[in-house]
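Entry 14: structure prediction run for Glyoxalase. Input pasted below.
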Amino acid sequence: MFTKEFGLMFYVDDVAAEKAFWTAAGFTIFNEAEMMGYESFDMKPHAEATTTITVYANEFIRQVSPEVIDMKPSVLFETDDIHGLQARIAGLTDTCSSVNAEPFPNFNFASPSGHYFAVKG
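Run finished. Output C-alpha coordinates:
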Protein backbone atom coordinates (compact mmCIF):
# COMPACT_ATOMS: atom_id res chain seq x y z
CA MET A 1 0.00 0.00 0.00
CA PHE A 2 1.09 3.54 -0.67
CA THR A 3 1.26 5.91 2.28
CA LYS A 4 -0.43 9.33 2.35
CA GLU A 5 2.96 11.04 1.90
CA PHE A 6 4.50 11.68 -1.49
CA GLY A 7 7.20 13.79 -3.05
CA LEU A 8 8.02 15.40 -6.35
CA MET A 9 11.39 15.51 -8.10
CA PHE A 10 12.63 18.34 -10.32
CA TYR A 11 15.64 17.94 -12.58
CA VAL A 12 17.48 21.20 -13.27
CA ASP A 13 20.67 22.52 -14.85
CA ASP A 14 21.63 24.85 -11.98
CA VAL A 15 20.77 23.56 -8.50
CA ALA A 16 22.22 26.64 -6.75
CA ALA A 17 20.09 29.03 -8.84
CA GLU A 18 16.97 27.01 -8.06
CA LYS A 19 17.77 27.01 -4.34
CA ALA A 20 18.27 30.79 -4.34
CA PHE A 21 15.03 31.34 -6.28
CA TRP A 22 12.85 29.11 -4.09
CA THR A 23 14.38 30.48 -0.89
CA ALA A 24 13.53 34.02 -2.04
CA ALA A 25 10.03 32.82 -2.93
CA GLY A 26 9.55 31.74 0.70
CA PHE A 27 10.04 27.97 0.51
CA THR A 28 11.58 26.02 3.38
CA ILE A 29 14.86 24.43 2.23
CA PHE A 30 16.17 21.37 4.07
CA ASN A 31 18.18 18.18 3.56
CA GLU A 32 20.85 19.77 1.41
CA ALA A 33 23.13 16.98 0.20
CA GLU A 34 25.81 16.02 -2.26
CA MET A 35 25.48 12.77 -4.19
CA MET A 36 28.16 11.56 -6.57
CA GLY A 37 29.54 15.10 -6.66
CA TYR A 38 26.19 16.79 -7.43
CA GLU A 39 24.21 19.09 -5.14
CA SER A 40 20.59 18.38 -4.26
CA PHE A 41 18.10 19.66 -1.74
CA ASP A 42 14.57 19.16 -0.47
CA MET A 43 12.05 21.95 -0.12
CA LYS A 44 8.49 22.56 0.94
CA PRO A 45 6.19 25.47 0.11
CA HIS A 46 5.36 25.76 3.82
CA ALA A 47 7.14 24.35 6.87
CA GLU A 48 4.07 22.24 7.74
CA ALA A 49 3.44 20.97 4.19
CA THR A 50 3.43 17.22 3.79
CA THR A 51 4.66 17.18 0.20
CA THR A 52 8.41 17.43 -0.36
CA ILE A 53 10.02 18.58 -3.59
CA THR A 54 13.54 17.28 -4.21
CA VAL A 55 15.75 19.12 -6.69
CA TYR A 56 18.46 17.18 -8.53
CA ALA A 57 21.04 18.19 -11.13
CA ASN A 58 20.21 17.01 -14.65
CA GLU A 59 23.67 15.49 -14.99
CA PHE A 60 23.14 13.39 -11.86
CA ILE A 61 19.82 12.08 -13.22
CA ARG A 62 21.42 11.31 -16.60
CA GLN A 63 23.82 9.01 -14.75
CA VAL A 64 21.38 7.26 -12.43
CA SER A 65 18.00 7.36 -14.27
CA PRO A 66 18.45 8.52 -17.87
CA GLU A 67 14.99 7.27 -18.83
CA VAL A 68 13.26 10.04 -16.82
CA ILE A 69 15.43 13.07 -17.67
CA ASP A 70 12.93 14.60 -20.10
CA MET A 71 9.87 14.24 -17.85
CA LYS A 72 8.44 17.55 -16.65
CA PRO A 73 5.85 17.68 -13.86
CA SER A 74 2.90 20.03 -13.81
CA VAL A 75 2.59 21.50 -10.34
CA LEU A 76 -0.24 23.62 -8.94
CA PHE A 77 0.39 25.47 -5.68
CA GLU A 78 -2.36 27.10 -3.60
CA THR A 79 -2.33 30.35 -1.63
CA ASP A 80 -4.64 32.40 0.57
CA ASP A 81 -3.06 35.65 -0.71
CA ILE A 82 -2.83 35.36 -4.49
CA HIS A 83 -2.10 39.04 -5.11
CA GLY A 84 0.61 39.21 -2.44
CA LEU A 85 2.28 36.02 -3.66
CA GLN A 86 2.05 37.10 -7.30
CA ALA A 87 3.78 40.39 -6.42
CA ARG A 88 6.53 38.52 -4.56
CA ILE A 89 7.17 36.10 -7.45
CA ALA A 90 6.96 38.88 -10.05
CA GLY A 91 9.82 40.55 -8.20
CA LEU A 92 11.94 37.43 -8.68
CA THR A 93 11.34 36.61 -12.35
CA ASP A 94 10.11 38.27 -15.51
CA THR A 95 8.18 35.10 -16.39
CA CYS A 96 5.40 35.73 -13.86
CA SER A 97 1.94 36.33 -15.31
CA SER A 98 -0.69 38.66 -13.96
CA VAL A 99 -3.46 37.22 -11.79
CA ASN A 100 -6.19 35.79 -14.02
CA ALA A 101 -9.81 35.60 -12.83
CA GLU A 102 -10.90 32.57 -14.87
CA PRO A 103 -11.50 29.73 -14.30
CA PHE A 104 -10.45 30.69 -10.76
CA PRO A 105 -7.93 33.26 -9.45
CA ASN A 106 -4.56 32.04 -10.75
CA PHE A 107 -1.16 32.97 -12.15
CA ASN A 108 1.87 31.11 -13.46
CA PHE A 109 5.63 31.58 -13.49
CA ALA A 110 8.86 29.81 -14.43
CA SER A 111 11.79 29.03 -12.17
CA PRO A 112 15.37 29.68 -13.34
CA SER A 113 15.46 26.31 -15.11
CA GLY A 114 12.37 27.09 -17.16
CA HIS A 115 9.94 24.84 -15.27
CA TYR A 116 6.50 26.46 -15.22
CA PHE A 117 4.30 26.42 -12.13
CA ALA A 118 0.69 27.47 -11.55
CA VAL A 119 -0.75 29.07 -8.42
CA LYS A 120 -4.42 28.93 -7.47
CA GLY A 121 -6.03 31.47 -5.16
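Notes: The CA atoms of residues 24 and 57 lie 20 Å apart. Will compare against the previous run tomorrow.
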